[in-house]
Amino acid sequence: MKTKIMMASRKLKIPRKTNFWSVTPTPATHSKEDSIPMLIALRDYLKLGDKEREITRILNNNMVKVDGRIVKDRRFPVGFMDVLSIDTLENDYIIVYDRKGKLVIRQNAPGNKGLKLFKVVKKTIIGTGKIQLGFHDGKTIVTDRKDINTSDVLLMKIPDLEIENVLKIAEGDKVFITGGSHVGELATIKSIEVKKSSVKNMVYLNEGFSTIKDYMFVVGTPKYTFKTPEIEVISNDE
To answer: What region holds the KOW domain (predicted)?
Structure first.
């Protein structure tokens, strides 16, 4: 489904006057507002073609993978922490937020090859000893591990989704801020204030600010750190 590029999500960091048409992301994984349609990712971000037909040709030739799996749909949505690979490019790419809350595509660190971080947003008991975990990107897995809770971040192999490590949210952890006035920043947890009411839990950071726990995405613990790209504030009128 086509849409005017002026109507695309304001979280996309793209020029609004270069191309007239965008596409509406398919309702698959990330929400419409928090995702980049594949056409926009390849055409406007990575500059792999000027025309929609050029991008369609790349996709039809099985040259594009998201989280290790081939994607052919130009409307397929990619979002925060997704890993994008293109056969003709040497490096993988990762989608993150910049410090203006825009979705950007950055080169992934070589040490992250074959790995991705998934934040647990839902935990459901589905049978004797079996638990279904739902992640921030819409994916799910079934596991017998009872030590995993919501807000935990799992380091998993892609595309098979095998758990390599569990990053618990705790004091001393390194986190990527996914919302609020400090979106796109890396910080270290100083303390966590647990509220007894329906008010959201607060997290205080060593860097001198605080924000709600919902915006915490753990990327490092004292024993392991997932390499995230440095995000700079770049002045633009997009």
So the answer is: 168-195
Q: What is the pTM of this model?
A: 0.89
Give the pLDDT confidence of 132-188 residue by residue, as tens digits: 999 999 999 999 999 999 999 999 999 999 999 999 999 999 999 999 999 999 999
Per-residue pLDDT band for 14 (boundaries 50, 70, 90) equals: low
Assigned architecture for domain 115-165: Beta Barrel (2.40)
Specify the amino acid at residue 23.
Answer: V
For 2-110, give the CATH class. Answer: alpha beta
How far, CA to CA in Å, does 234 sit from each of 10, 36, 104, 231, 238?
Answer: 16, 19, 12, 9, 11
- Name the nearest CA neighbour of 29 among 58, 57, 66, 62: 66
| CB neighbourhood size of 68 (10 A) | 16
Of residues 229, 211, 210, 209, the one with CA closest to residue 219: 229
The DSSP bridge pattern shows strands 210-212 and 202-205 to be: antiparallel
| Domain-wise residue ranges, the chain | 2-110, 115-165, 174-220
Instruction: State residue 15's pLDDT score.
Output: 58
